[in-house]
Design brief:
The chain contains 7 helices and 7 strands, in the order E-H-E-H-E-H-E-H-E-H-E-H-H-E. With 256 residues, it is of the alpha/beta class. A 7-stranded parallel sheet has the order 3-2-1-4-5-6-7, sandwiched between helices. Helix 2 links the parallel strand 2 and strand 3. Bound molecules: NADPH dihydro-nicotinamide-adenine-dinucleotide phosphate and Kalimantacin. The site of Kalimantacin has 21 residues, from helix 6.
């Protein structure tokens, strides 16, 4: 395997279990020589993470970070700074909306539900980018995870679609702010992948079938494909790319 990320230290947020997109990303970054640091929210996620790291012979620190809490974010990045000094990359693979907001009409979204989705899924990128920047003293690359529901109306995605639209707009504004420090900011827009967050949400199976029928590649994508594309955006191969959204969706987004 090549060493595209040798001597790069990268923080990964959002591994809940082996199915997480962030875990697919972790495997790709590890294969390409990166030193990894993981953040988690729930103790259950930390336990899963520690087992996964042991099973894959990966040595990495795990740090607690709840993206709804500024003090937790600041403490996490202070701890990371104390451990490694400089970081070169950040993977933001975190989103949350209350279940009742992910069905029925968007028009019925509650104020609390709207704020929760925006806070967890969009503002969280702004807050973590600000802290990560302090540790990116040699430049860096930040990658977040979006979905086509940011661009078009996807049934049931509702309040999360509006949060992802804010996330993609934040990618552009952050790219402009951080570009002068040699820090790039991009998003991947992945096709549907069966993960814990996707579990039990209405309409997921139908969307997977639609991709098999309509996407140019006539198949769904997996965590490894998103992992490799994220690796590219974190590596020097993508050094001229910032403020962009790269679709890893079997080409579905080009179809009418
Ligand atoms: P997972 O359930 O595996 O990951 C979601 C992660 O979000 C969990 O690790 C969870 O941590 C974390 N999280 C939620 N709230 C918080 C919080 N307040 N603080 C810290 N962490 C938090 O699902 P995915 O891998 O599918 O999701 C990762 C990203 O990919 C999300 O942004 C999602 O929107 C996006 N995406 C997913 C697609 C899919 O089809 N699966 C398609 C396109 C985009 P914990 O459990 O410890 O709270
Ligand atoms: C159109 C699609 C079908 C489903 C609609 C909405 C999916 C929203 C994703 C969002 C992240 C899901 C949740 O926040 C679920 C949450 O309410 C309950 N689950 C949890 O708390 C688990 C335990 C933890 C790990 O989850 C989180 N989020 O912390 C969208 C599909 C086709 C594509 C998807 C799933 C996109 C996406 O953004 O994830």
């Amino acid at each position: 395997m090549t060493s595209l990320l040798n001597n790069r230290t990268i923080v990964i947020m959002g591994v809940a279990n082996e199915r997480s997109i962030a875990w697919g990303i972790a495997k790709s970054l590890n294969e390409h020589g990166a030193q990894l640091i993981f953040t988690y929210r729930k103790e259950r996620s930390r336990d899963k993470l520690i087992k996964l790291l042991a099973d894959h012979d990966i040595t990495a620190k795990t740090v607690s970070c709840d993206v709804l809490d500024d003090a937790s974010i600041i403490a996490a990045f202070e701890q990371i700074g104390a451990e490694v000094g400089t970081i070169h990359g950040l993977v933001h693979s975190v989103a949350f909306a209350e279940k009742d907001e992910l069905q029925g009409e968007y028009a019925d979204t509650s104020r609390e539900g709207y704020i929760m989705a925006q806070n967890s899924s969009a503002y969280s990128l702004v807050a973590v980018a600000r802290e990560a920047k302090k540790l990116m003293t040699e430049g860096g690359s930040i990658v977040t995870q979006s979905y086509i529901g940011a661009e078009r109306v996807v049934r049931n995605y509702n309040v999360m679609g509006v949060a992802k639209a804010a996330l993609e707009a934040s990618v552009k504004y952050l790219a402009e702010d951080l570009g002068k420090y040699g820090i790039r900011v991009n998003a991947i827009s992945a096709g549907p992948i069966r993960t814990l967050a996707a579990k039990g949400v209405s309409g997921f199976n139908d969307i997977m079938s639609t991709i098999e029928e309509k996407a140019p590649l006539r198949r769904n994508v997996d965590q490894e494909e998103v992992g490799d594309a994220t690796m590219f955006l974190l590596s020097n191969l993508s050094r001229g790319i910032t403020g962009d959204v790269l679709h890893v969706d079997s080409g579905y987004h080009i179809m009418a």
